Amino acid sequence: MGNADLRSLAAIADVSFDDVSGVVAVDAHNWLYRYLTTTVKFTSDRVYTTAGGDEVANLVGIVQGLPKFFEHGLTPVFVFDGGVTELKDAEVSERRARREKAEERRQAAEERGDAVEAARLEARTQRLTSVIHETSRGLLDRLDVPIVEAPAEGEAQCAYMNRVGDVDYSGSEDYDTLLFGGPYTLRQLTSSGDPELMDLNATLDEHDITYEQLVDIGMLCGTDFNEGVPGIGPKTALKEVKEHGDLFGVLDARDAHIDFADRIRELFFDPPTTDDYDVDTDLSPDVDAARAYVTDEWEVPAGEVDRGFDRIEEALTQTGLDDWT
Amino acid sequence: MFKAIVSASTLRDALDSVSVLVDECKLRLEEDELAIRAVDPANVGMVDLALEAAAFESYEADGGVIGVNLNRLEDIVGMANSGDLVQLELDEETRKLHIQIEELSYTLALIDPDSIREEPDIPDLDLPAEIVLEGAQIGRGITAADMVSDHIRLRVDTDAEAFFIEAEGDTDDVDLKLERDDLIDLQSGPADSLFSLDYLKDMNKAIPSDAEVRVELGEEFPVKLHYEFGEGMGQVTYMLAPRIQSD
């Protein structure tokens, strides 16, 4: 993953929640994953496990994470990943291998009686089960939060919706929205402090490059879809792309090779996206139904989610004076 | 250019009415009045204040705008005794405000007005009901409502010709019924809205209990609360956005 590399090139500014408003297309998998890991780490598994053995830590996570949007006048739209893009198979199998390895170490830690290490590793092995998929949608539906089903990469769909102007920001902790051409990305939406705003055009201006060149730099450093060229970091990639014009110029000059380079580039420039979505931001949530869904149907103790639901209710029932201007 | 002398109590009343909503604001130093308009960060409550030149012992201004930290300014003015006069003078060179209270002088650094949240547009409201009553009457309703709930319902019953302040708690309820005879004036019309007590409590703190308060109300619309201070030469209008009524 080229995350650290991209970060060093991206124009990122700390912003205050007061300065941002509008609609943010959130990469649901990425967002949920963060809340799953923290919930699993800090909460007893009895809280989020039903009598039938289904784990629904996601419900606790969603109720914790949503108030932040509403309290700051942001409407989230959750974009779920579709099928895995074929080229990403290598990445997926690598993740799976990492997870299996973590699982082995977790069992070893558990046997040693190292509870902290076991919990930490358990978080890493957490994946989105079909129950998590189903219940996340079920809860968001009751709160009338829009859901979009991406044909493939959620981040690509977020970036697309931002580019065509249907949303004001993408929301992701990763940096790939930049390579997918998303103009504005809000980061750290799952952290406790203020968010970061990543600006595509400011990034391009700062380095005096085109969007296509940014993708080429990303690919030289390595992306979800390809290994980078050994020995090339962001500074070198930037310098050489500017010198040779594009990815292929750099590869020729170095006599290097990236598998499927053409196709991967196209995937960033023109990823599978859909126009089949409806971003209705005038939410009419049924908070009581949402509470009942989480606490009765999925057996999460009310005490775990009461505060979060109260905050959601409070934020969504208070109107603003700007509704009348 | 700005140079003014004003009684400490008048200035305090003016600042208090704004500081319940925001920490910093712009002062518009018009030729004929000092004006402040501010909205809280959540865009729920707004204050629109004007203090006429006549409310000052002396007043000279030419339309400039300065930004102030309200808490700081309130603290300084709080140093004055009630009968004291406060002298204010803007130093254009250093962009600081000189404040003189008796023998105490204070130089207040100003805030760049551009860094302060923009002054809001005033909502365009045509509210069907108007209730005029004493500050103490509203205060009583708000204090009682606060004992049972976070929200307060204000409504006019057009048949009964009465103004109701109500709150519904988990177990306890509060009802304050003010009939036409209990009020200074009532212009009856369909009005029923729910508001956050957090905001209303704060606004109520600034409203003098003997002030005549004009309440303009609609159905699920913002409420306007208007009162005067400084012997009628200062005017404050609060606006508060409603909560959505669920049932």
From TrEMBL, chain A:
InterPro entries, per this entry? 5-3_exonuclease_C_sf (IPR036279), Flap_endonuc (IPR023426), Flap_endonuc_arc (IPR019973), HhH2 (IPR008918), PIN-like_dom_sf (IPR029060), XPG-I_dom (IPR006086), XPG/Rad2 (IPR006084), XPG_CS (IPR019974)
SUPFAM superfamilies reported for this sequence: 5' to 3' exonuclease, C-terminal subdomain (SSF47807), PIN domain-like (SSF88723)
Gene3D superfamilies documented for this protein: 5' to 3' exonuclease, C-terminal subdomain, 5'-nuclease
| Broad class of enzyme this protein falls into | hydrolase
Q: Write the Enzyme Commission number(s) for this entry.
A: 3.1.-.-
Map out region (Disordered) in residue numbers: 94-113
| Name of the protein described by the UniProt record | Flap endonuclease 1
Question: Which gene produces this protein?
Answer: fen
TrEMBL record, chain B:
Q: Which HAMAP family match?
A: DNApol_clamp_arch
Q: Which PANTHER family match?
A: PROLIFERATING CELL NUCLEAR ANTIGEN
- Stored Pfam families: PCNA_C, PCNA_N
Molecular-function GO terms, alphabetical = DNA binding; DNA polymerase processivity factor activity
Organism, as annotated: Candidatus Halobonum tyrrellensis G22
Q: Which family does it belong to?
A: Belongs to the PCNA family.
List the InterPro entries: DNA_clamp_sf (IPR046938), Pr_cel_nuc_antig (IPR000730), Pr_cel_nuc_antig_C (IPR022649), Pr_cel_nuc_antig_N (IPR022648)
What's a BP term from Gene Ontology annotated to this protein? regulation of DNA replication
Q: Where is the Proliferating cell nuclear antigen PCNA N-terminal domain?
A: 5-103
Keywords (alphabetical) are:
DNA replication, DNA-binding
Gene3D superfamilies noted in UniProt: 3.70.10.10
Q: What is the lineage of its organism?
A: Archaea, Methanobacteriati, Methanobacteriota, Stenosarchaea group, Halobacteria
Entries under NCBIfam families matching the protein: PRK01115.1-5
Q: Which residues form the Proliferating cell nuclear antigen PCNA C-terminal domain?
A: 188-242
Highest taxon of the lineage:
Archaea
SUPFAM superfamilies annotated for this entry?
Answer: DNA clamp
Q: What does this protein do?
A: Sliding clamp subunit that acts as a moving platform for DNA processing. Responsible for tethering the catalytic subunit of DNA polymerase and other proteins to DNA during high-speed replication. Sliding clamp subunit. Responsible for tethering the catalytic subunit of DNA polymerase to DNA during high-speed replication.
**Its quaternary structure?**
Homotrimer. The subunits circularize to form a toroid; DNA passes through its center. Replication factor C (RFC) is required to load the toroid on the DNA.
Record's protein name: DNA polymerase sliding clamp
